[in-house]
Design goal:
With 421 residues, the protein is α/β, with parallel strands linked by helices. It folds into three domains: 18-221, no CATH class; 235-307, no CATH class; 313-420, PH-domain like (Roll). 26% of the residues lie in helices and 25% in strands. The protein has a seven-stranded mixed sheet, sandwiched between helices. 41% of the residues are buried.
């Protein structure tokens, strides 16, 4: 059997092609312009800003890319992009300046490519440091190395804090797109002069301060109504734990309701995305009516499980491997996935009869990229090694992705804290 050519992760980068620039401009006009989100750009501390620079952005939906172009239409960009986004369109992705990256793996060549893009190709480098789409409309962990990265590159740092893009198309229910006018705070957090004088820790702090966002609070404060009848459909993907009876994976959502099939508790999600308990015989913490608070409460529960050593997950999984950008993901077999304080272990026997094992130690996996119903093939977990990318689909446990995401981060924190003791 002919061996498939592997994806060339570290292929030489040449920057964006001039003839694809009109496509970017038209796309930005359609998605972020008068026929799309009508995004408003507010530039802060940008006097004298010139490229190339590092552009860091929160990441909630596809329109984020259009907003980058709209924010700097005369600039050239290279985009740090997850490798699976190259499937079926590698020529286009490389043509617009995308630099491939495997999720949550160490990659020194990526740093060299970014440096080349900035200093040789004279392109701004766009990075989504959360490394995945936002799940609940709030900022996630962005890692602690961005300040050091800026010091190495010696260029200004800009943060794009995008508001409304999540509400328009939340990851738990990407379609249909909602009619939300988006806003962007485009902030130069470190100037060209400051990047030379500030410490990496000071730069990191500025980045983290500019990265704080909460789309649900922004919606409520600005009294932005979402009148769609099905505005709560699928939100149980992130609100998997019932605050009334504490059962997990028993919530369902439909229209503008969330319901617990275990105890019968029911919430009505109003037009400002507040969750209102409809049962007079039930009690709960009303602070959880703010969706990010409910989300954070679940995270705190998982943190406690991890810290006291009681957390463990185990399930039968389907395993798909990313072969290359033409072949895409191919099923290679089934196995067993286990996650505990040691990390993530996947073992099994593949369809071709060969044994399979991938182990991601706890101290190497800071977070987890998850996909709800990935391309209609089921809920998926992205597991990457230095040489391969796998999508792993849990087969018997329903609605577990959000908890796995919380657990991965908590396990990483616990493992790295032990190392520093």
């Amino acid at each position: 059997m002919k061996k498939e050519k592997a994806f060339e992760l570290h292929k030489k980068i040449n920057g964006p092609k001039w003839y694809l620039r009109p496509i970017e401009m038209v796309g930005a006009w359609l998605f972020a312009g008068p026929f799309g989100t009508k995004t408003k750009i507010k530039k802060i501390n940008c006097e004298g800003l010139k490229g190339p620079y590092i552009l860091l952005s929160n990441h909630a939906s596809f329109v984020d890319f259009a907003n980058v172009i709209k924010s700097g239409p005369t600039q050239k960009y290279c985009w740090v992009t997850s490798i699976e986004e190259f499937n079926g369109r590698e020529w286009l992705m490389r043509g617009v300046g995308c630099i491939p990256k495997r999720k949550f793996t160490k990659d020194t060549i990526l740093i060299r490519n970014c440096y080349k893009a900035l200093h040789t190709l004279k392109c701004n480098v766009v990075i989504y440091p959360e490394a995945r789409f936002a799940l609940a409309g709030v900022n996630e962990d962005i890692g602690k190395a961005l300040g050091k990265f800026a010091k190495v590159c010696k260029v200004p740092v800009v943060v794009m804090n995008q508001k409304g893009t999540f509400l328009r198309s939340p990851q738990w229910c990407k379609h249909p797109y909602r009619k939300i006018q988006c806003e962007v705070d485009y902030i130069q957090v470190v100037t060209k002069e400051e990047v030379l004088t500030l410490s990496a820790e000071e730069i990191q702090e500025r980045i983290e301060d500019a990265f704080i966002w909460d789309d649900y609070k922004w919606q409520y404060d600005n009294k932005i109504k979402i009148t769609d009848k099905d505005r709560a459909t699928n939100i149980h993907k992130i609100l998997y734990k019932c605050p009334c009876c504490n059962s997990e994976q028993k919530t369902i959502s439909y229209d503008h309701y969330v319901e617990c099939t275990e105890c019968g508790a029911k919430w009505d999600m109003d037009e400002y995305s507040r969750m209102n308990l409809t049962n007079e015989d039930k009690t709960w913490d009303s602070n959880l009516s703010h969706v990010p608070n409910w989300y954070k409460w679940q995270r705190d529960v998982v943190d406690e499980e991890v810290m006291n050593g009681t957390y463990v997950f185990k399930d039968k999984v389907r395993i798909e491997r990313l072969v290359n950008s033409k072949k895409g993901f191919v099923r290679i077999g089934e196995g067993i996935m286990r996650q505990d304080e040691k990390g993530i272990l996947i073992t099994g026997t593949l369809d071709d009869g060969n044994p399979f094992e991938v182990f991601k130690p706890a101290n190497t996996t800071a977070s987890l990229h998850i996909e709800y119903d990935y391309k209609k093939r089921g809920d998926a977990i992205d597991i990457a090694t230095e040489t391969d990318t796998y999508f792993v689909f849990p087969l018997t446990n329903p609605n577990v992705l959000t908890k796995l995401h919380f657990a991965t981060e908590a396990i990483f924190r616990k493992a790295t804290e032990k190392e520093t003791e």
